[in-house]
Queue: 4 jobs
Job 1
Amino acid sequence: MSDSPNPIRLPQVNPGASEAAESPSNPLRSYHVFLLLFVLLAVLVIVASVLTQHMTAEAFNRVVEQTDGVIRAQVWLDELSRSLLEVNAAGNNIFKSQDVPTERGNFRFHLAELRSHVSGLSGDFLNRPSFERHMDDMVEAEQHIFDCFDELSCAPIGSQAEETLLAEAAQSMAEMDAAQARAMEVLGHARRVLRQRQQAIQDEGKQVLSERWLRELMFIGSIAVFLGAGYALWRQFQRVHEQVELARRRVEAERKNRLAAVGEVCFSVAHGIKNPVAAIASSAQLVLEYGQLDDASKERVRDLYVVTRSLSERVTQLLNFSRVGELQRVRLDPRDVLERALREIESQLAAAGVSVVRRFEAGGAQLEGDRNILVQAVLELLGNAKDALPAGGGVTVLCRVCEADAGLVELGVIDTGPGMSEDVKRRAFELFFTRKPKGSGVGLATVKRAAELHNGAVVISDADPHGADIRIRLPRAEGSTVGSAPKAQA
């Protein structure tokens, strides 16, 4: 983590191209959102169809209820007509049976039934005052018939009184029948009214159902066209997404190929420089130890030794970055990885006045990976933290189960330094990008490569209250459990 970029540049892919293709905010990736909207629209169509069917069913039910009301009224008219005929029949039967008590009892029974039917009338289809007037005329005439027959029982047979009473009874019977006929005409008119209403209800029902059916056809047709157009648009989005995904994979493959080419170049250059640089450093060290030099010459040789050592470290970084091949996977305790890295650099941290706090909170969680590569990655983070910290700063080394995903273990280095700007955090893993005046720009790129080799990732965030928080997130080994975490140790 330094302030000026290294002048050495090798060809590399523009990271923005791959990031643009992989970005979750890419609008071409929204086809699945369109699919969700398409499904929601389909649900709305189903709901609208159900509501339309419900409205149609309600209209049909109203027609059925109105028709049922007409049928009930017709049945009521039939019952009223029957009762009217039965009341009239008693006044006619008396002339044959001459049984006044029995026929009078029948008359009273059916008259009560008739009046009950009339009182239960509901609706305006019957001219009730006219019907009741004719009914009362019929009842009055019939009662006079029974009165005449009551007097006949006391009149001598064959006498003038008997003939007069029989004539009055016959006249009353004619009046009774005429009143009954007029009442039946009123009922007949009511039946015609009901038949007209029934026909009107049926015609209205047919019209309503026809209109509903036509609306449903138009609705279904328009929805079908809309859904077809939506499906075609969704397919177009999907095809565009597939093309973008293919382009992204192609860019990623090209990036990896170029990165591999960079690794080969690094390996070739580093391998060619390492041995001569080591020889120069060894020679300088021997001259310093055994040579007969004045102070000025010793200072120059010492500078040569320091420069060659620094160059050797950079060459080692390049070799680590270009390392390919099978990982030496073993089951690891994350605490052991951190402790090994601390043992190698703790003396340098102490010499720089940097305090170290251990926070081992992973419990029984374990990793599977290459121990040396992971130790080197943690060493890179610790070295960067040391270089970024002023004297008296602090570093926290932690291992813990990731809060966002219990299947990951974090190896973290948190410093109390000045931290990183957003631009630096975005470019921190670019090869050869550095802020150090003498940095190589390989360290964090090596850390990222180590994480990717283990199917992991590196996350950079701001520490609280200030500083950088860099964590390597790696998959937890299968079968490892998480126990109680020990407290932090200074």
Note: The two ends are 25 Å apart (CA to CA).
Job 2
Amino acid sequence: MERALIYEIRVYEAVEGKAQAMRARFKEHVVPRLPRHGIELVGVFEAPAEDGRLTYLTRFKSEEDRTKGWAAFGADAEWREIKAASEVDGPLLKNQTVSVLSPAVTGLLLG
């Protein structure tokens, strides 16, 4: 029997006035690094109105892969430098919500 994939939804809420900078950093620096650490990006979403949030969906083969992928991403020296440089005037991220999901019924989602 094939194991169900693990999906993760992350919602980032920017510090007031820093949504554009947070989104730019995500698109320019986070997105290209995710595959390097075994993190498959399924989609990125913004609310129609400017509310300072960015939501994205990732997919992993297992919980172990998810844990390893984020640990590797967090330890990435280049990412740490970029993050520090982008936050010299304070953090861009006010709040982060992470939801880890497994499909309740297989075969209904693509992939």
Note: The chain has a mean pLDDT of 90.
Job 3
Amino acid sequence: MNPRYLHSIDELDNLVGLMPKEREEMELVTKTFPFRANEYYLSLIDWKNLHDPLRRIVVPDPRELKGGGCPDPSCENNFTKLPGLQHKYDQTGLLLLSDVCGGICRFCFRKRLFIGCERETIRDVSAGLEYIHSHPEITNVLLTGGDPLTLETRRLEAVLKELREIDHVNIIRIGSKMPAYNPYRILNDPSLADVLARYSTPAKRIYLMAHYNHPKEMTDVSMQAVEQLQRAGVIVVNQTPVLNEVNSDPAVFTQLFRKLSFAGVSPYYVFQCRPSMGNRFFQTPVERSYEIIQHAWQACSGLAKRARFVMSHATGKIEIVGKTANHVFMRYHQAADTADIGKMLVFPSNPLARWFDDYRHHAVHAGDTLLPFGIPKMHWLF
């Protein structure tokens, strides 16, 4: 099977049959935020259920046009050293290889790639590879975009080969939702597994950062694709944001965490949904997200509870590590300024906060003395 890709609401209507009003609303959304999906993924949706979680993931919703959010919520532009190359954390370099995905997630934090004229990805990555070669502190490289598995295997292999010739690059990561969106990309191309096996060595592994957002995406054929990757020596882990009306239910996250661990896929990160353009209705409040994860873990083994709940903020990855009735406790799991790594933050509880800045602004308005990033001195613990 090679699923056909759809790029317009007209094609979607012909495939599943839409009501005139919903078709009109979707077409209005796509004037701002494009649509892309394929027949395989769309076949997983219960079209009689307007609240189907996979429908929420990939089908345009008029609430995307309600405003709010920004094109670059994590300020990636500040850490772009060359076209297609980001370097925010000392040990990690990002190569943006593609501005195409197996589907366009409605909550994508890089949706600017799909709606802007200025390209951030690059076909010729030689300058980025030279940058990585000249920065020995970079021990791991994340291939991202877009989705690197939308590239032809020979193009992906060329990048992997170059990276493996850089001694200090020990880990190569590939960020991809293709196992969920189109597992046939993996199953129908034996050369992909051969290439991955060649460059994922016992001492220097390739990791695939899968994006399963809901257990319904973990179909039998998807699990076959994961198994093929694992047999090629690739370590498959998973990351997902908490998404309102998709997985914002402890029972759903319990099922997701358990199915991942049963399949040998380690839960890696759970993200707070970033405040990108059109994303507000996907964002659950931070403290509610934390509670969802904690309740989900009650029915999980330790192997299913390895994910960290973080916000990918401009200043770093901020882990939410605890809360009481009155306070929220956070920690810099990773930081743009290495001196901040491991620092603890304590804020008054703010049940309406959807992002780190909501806590910062609340503290500023309280009139406390401020430290870097606007954090009140009384709440910064060394």
Note: The first strand starts at residue 5 and ends at 6.
Job 4
Amino acid sequence: MKSKIAIALLVLAGISTFANAGLKAGADITDITPLSDHYPISTAGSMKAVFVDDSESRIHCRTVMVGNESTIVSFTIVDSCLIPRSIADAAKRIASGKTGIPAGHITVAASHTHSAPAATPAFQSNPSVGYQIYLTEKIADSIANAHARLEPAEIGWAVGTDPTQVFNRRWFVTEPYLNPFSETTDKVRMNPGYNRGGGKVSKPAGPVDPDVSILSLRSPGPDKKPIALLANYSLHYVGNPVRTSKGKSQFSGDYFAAFAEVMAEKVASGNSDFVAVLSNGTSGDINNIDYSSPPPETRYQPGEKIREVAASVADAAMEAYQTIEYHQDLPIAVASRELQLGVRKADPAGLKRAHEILGSTEQLINGNLSAREAIYARETLQLREFPDTVPVRLQSVRLGDLCINTTPCETFVEIGLELKKISPFGTSFTIELANGYNGYLPTPQQHEWGGYETWRAKSSYLEVNASVKVVDAFKEMMNELKSK
């Protein structure tokens, strides 16, 4: 009786854990490219709306699932810039109804490609309601498909490293510059340009995380057939995808999708059922451009840099893959928290300034506000309509001595490094932009230094101390999971 009560209390506390009864795994890749009646459709990833009329390339969501007779956990990574909580929750509810997997055991995350249809409002990009409904159904389908393909499995993980593709994009300035709020108080600048912005910046304002973490699932039989691979790397995105044959913008899964294709060939050439997935780590302040160096002598062709980065990360992942030790029996547990975090809003003077800017002679160009100050004035007025606090969903998944944390933010790399440092597990990594979208998550120190990622907007609105509360919650969850 006591054990049943203990389990019930753990479930109520947001933790579920059961003895392992033999592992099983499944995977799926589902096409999420818009249908013809969704066009023209806006992409996300820019301060201005960019519309796509058609796409010769395809985008997908990819699902990896593992569990036993009692507990199954699922990870779906979507070729999308941002997935709002409304879509993630709806997809999970539908998938839970089809599979019986508790919604709290399902992760739905955006990869953060900047070349996919907008799924949530972001700056001046607005989603197609028809595509939002379609995307929700497709994500749920992918989870259900993976569940239908569950088969006996064994699991292993390893960590490689690729420091060649990650650079902190925030640099300390040597002379003041004007931010969108007519202030010159920012101490750092994002993406200052090659050669340190002509001497206007001095050094990066943060570290990087070169880890390439991988989780591998394969058949326990004599053939050791690869089933799926889930990787994690802390690089924002690459960009510059291939255009259509007519030279127009089209969709791209960026280096995340290219990595999946390369790893599928490396690990399971000829096995069409194998699914490789790359999730985004804590890359809120990370890109793949070394601004301390001169610009490259040769200009990259469209898609070339994506392929180069994907190949580099895949090489590191493959090197780690060769070292994996597999397990057929291990504890599986899930913990979750929902924090209520404050929303940063403008004071009366800031609201007055925003009204004055938008009431001026600012002109629209192709339906977009052109001036940065006007764009942020619009964001200021939109944030006024937000509640004073918002729910922020956190999740931790234990697979033996591996812990996977998920955050719904563009999380700064030092936060991810801190979570690895305080983790009681042998291996940990974080999937960002998961189970919703709550903007950037800088540290309090980075907030003090300012810069794009801290500028008040729908892309950055959580309270200054949000990261402290997030880390504290993850510490509690990981320690609880470790004790089970």
Note: The first helix runs from residue 2 to 12.
